[in-house]
Amino acid sequence: MSSTIPINQSDPTAPTPQNTPLTHAPIAAGLSRPTVPDITEDNEEEELAAVEDIQQTMLGLVQGRLAGLVGRSSGYIESLPTEIKLNVEALKGVHVKQAELQNQYKRECLALEKKYAELHKPLYERRKEIITGASKPTPEEIEAGEKVSAKEDEEFTPPSKEGKEPSADGIPEFWLTALRNHIVLNEIITDRDAAALKHLVDVRIDYLPPTDPKPGFKLSFHFTPNEFFENEVLEKTYLYQEEVGYGGDFVYDRAIGTEIKWKEDKDLTKEFEIKKQRNKNTNRTRLVRKARPAESFFNFFAPPLPPSEEAVESGDLDEEELEEIDEKLELDYQIGEDIKEKIIPHAVDWFTGKALEFEDLDEDEDDFEDLDDEDDEDAFDEEV
């Protein structure tokens, strides 16, 4: 750095980032480190426990102090001379143009996605015909699929076709199976839901037209007539904010779902219970049927709503409630993105389960056990 820049010379501390405290951390500021007394065999366990308590106390003190300083200005930026501050403001002006370019880039990417989504539609329609049995697959389509299977699995053996033809029934429960192979969706699809999802024959995506005020996409779930609801199509629309976010991607705004027209006593998002009530005056009893919310995949079409700015600013919602709403919004958006980006374009791989090979599945610690030294060395050798 040039020595001609008039930075305050009275403070020998080097300039720090804006979100880093200028003051030293507690230990560096002169707090004495915990001393470890001599340990004898008689009181070894007590002394070790005392030392651990001291260390935990000091660690909590340091972490608490630093946590309170996160995001606070160090004072460095404020201390810069006006001439330097003008340069900083100029950089912000340049950054505005960068943000405008990123916004333009993302919108052009979205337009490209729309273009190829249209090109995919005839293939999705052909997929639907095979799944529903509306049309039988051609020998060329079967042969192309067998080549893929042979490439993926060296032990694959094509089924004998002698005297056999593709079933006119298509592939029963195709979409139910595909959805259930998705880890998160499997958690929210109940056995009651499965009876309705057996009637799901297609899932499509459509991007919102440029005339809409906000960019976004719509998921459409097509059903055959069933005993649960009147709708032939259930839709879920995801809206983005008009401008891209700080990270350069579209930011989720909100979602809108179809109102499901449930047939009598078939609402899968509710559970009904019969309660007996007694009149205090006449002593007569009656049976009352009450409904309560139930876990169901079909709650997906009644998405959570973001809290209003007024509710947040007024403090009507406490921190826990805001976190809970945020978690629900994040999960809802992630499910929508997974259906859009993974399940719809790769439906056959989700049906067969192959798609799971490309998922980052978290391994449970309970699935592992400690090895003795010899086994540990053998495992290490194998990894190397």
TrEMBL record:
Record's compositionally biased regions (Polar residues): 1-22
Region (Disordered): 1-38, 131-169, 361-384
InterPro entries tied to this protein: NAP-like_sf, NAP_family
Family, similarity comment: Belongs to the nucleosome assembly protein (NAP) family.
Protein name, as recorded: Nucleosome assembly protein
Native organism: Somion occarium
